[in-house]
Request: fold
Amino acid sequence: MHSFICGLLRAATACTLAALFVIPSGLMAQTHVVSPSELQAQVLAASQMRQRNIEKLDAFLSSPAATRALADASIDPRQVTTAVSSLSDAELAQLASRADQVQKDFAAGDLSEHDLLLIILGVAVLVLIIVAVR
Reply:
């Protein structure tokens, strides 16, 4: 009985070693690893997108109408600008997209100046609330 178990153990060990030597180790490693250049490109693209979104929101919130609306509501524009940079990438993307749409609608005459001021105040308050909740 003892020799039978030893024989099975030897056969299993031989099969395992044969499988390890037959399958190239480089093949196993390459299927699960992202190349450093791909990773670097993705990080760079995400960083550039984040910077563009911050710039869009900063431009939106520093426009003359926004400056006037924030002053009328006694909201410090620097506080809002500082809070913008601490938003997540998803929050930045969503707010930047909405700011673009608002500016296009205002330029096309779809929004009155009063509507624009209310939206600017809404965005500023939303940014401050998101940062305060964290």
About this structure: The two ends are 66 Å apart (CA to CA). The chain has two domains: 1-33, 46-133.
